[in-house]
Amino acid sequence: MPELPEVETTRRGISPHALGQTIERVNIYQPRLRWPVPPEMAGTLQGQTLVDIRRRGKYLLFDVAPGTALLHLGMSGSLRVVDATTPLKKHDHLELILGNERILRFHDPRRFGSFLWADDWASHPLIAKLGPEPLGERFSAAHLYQRSRGRKAGIKVFVMNSEVVVGVGNIYASEALFKAGIHPKRAAGRISMDRYKRLETAIRETLSAAIKMGGTTLRDFYGGDGEPGYFKQQLAVYEREGEACLRCESTIKRCVLGQRASYYCPKCQR
DNA sequence: CTTACCGCCTGTCGGC
DNA sequence: TGCCGACAGGCGGTAA
Q1: Other beta carbons within 10 Å of A150
Q2: Residues at the strand C interface (Cβ < 7 Å)
Q3: Comparing C-alpha atoms, which of A62, A95, A65, A97 is closest to residue A78?
Q4: Residue A208 and residue A134: Cα distance in Å, rounded?
Q5: Does the model's pTM come out above 0.90?
């Protein structure tokens, strides 16, 4: 499922084919995504040049002169570069036809993704309140420490809150907490600065490593160039319930936190 | 302010 | 074999 590394992989995969290209046409086959695709979207984008393709959290930002189109991959979405000979598949919901005859095609079986317009992307309600980028300068142990004081929520739920830090989803939260040796249920407000330093490092390292490997393909993720991600082979705890911890050989446990499956080593994580 | 839970949606899987 | 319910999950919205 697309988290930050998968979105970044997608951005890097499509950019060489799409940057600077004219959007000749926009086809919207299924406007009913997480939110309805605005009816004027196709008309707004048509004829515009893709000035930049950026990422904010898990949003892909397509900059054109009048504003920015926001694409979120939801949990089953993928965006790939294809050409006109590639047949449309079930759940291909929209596509941008580019001047170089390449096509950016969005595929999303569960339709939790979204495609929205913003005149000024930074003040868009879905973007404005987002926390810092976990690979950026504004993300720090001090930030986590400060934001967590008084919070009783478990650290995993806390760190997956996009107002605290963006892009850390279910897979990488579990992995980073294992790496930092912190139990996922530990109250965020009772974690020391020292341990937050370890967590900051773990988050940065985990996400960087995943980007390097093209993201994690559990079931159906493909990057912009159609390649699956290979980080799955590096997962230490995620979906490894009942298997041996790679560090201490204890049995990996599974629990549900914030209605999401969580995996941890009961001995390595306290 | 916080925390808890719902629902959007389809593919997959286990049970019968 | 085939049907059906449970489950998965990002994340905004709403209730408590």
Answers
A1: 8
A2: A 1, 3, 34, 57-58, 72, 74-76, 110, 112, 125-126, 162, 169-171, 256, 259-261
A3: A95
A4: 10
A5: yes
Question: What does the block give as tokens for A159?
Answer: 């760190």
Output the six-digit token pair for A240.
């490894």
- Virtual CA dihedral for A121, A127, A132, A134, nearest 10 degrees? -100
A71-84: buried (b, 16+ CB within 10 Å) or exposed (e) per residue?
bbbbbbbbbbbbee
A225/A228 Cα distance (integer angstroms) = 9
- Going by C-alpha positions, the residue among A43, A25, A40, A218 that lies closest to residue A105 is A25
Average pLDDT of each block of 10 consecutive residues along chain A (270 residues)?
Answer: 86 94 96 91 96 94 95 90 92 95 93 92 90 93 92 90 90 92 92 95 93 73 70 83 92 86 92
Report helix angle A4-18 to A193-212, nearest 10: 40
Active site residue A3: yes
Q: Residue A57's closest CA among A1, A94, A19, A3?
A: A3
Cβ(A67)–Cβ(A77) below 8 Å: no
Count of residues making up chain A: 270
Nucleotides of strand B lying closer than 7 angstroms to a protein CB: 2-12
Q: What are A50's two structure tokens?
A: 């893709």
Burial class (CB in 10 A: 0-12, 13-18, 19+), A156: buried
- Residue of A107, A101, A55 lying closest to A220 (CA atoms): A107
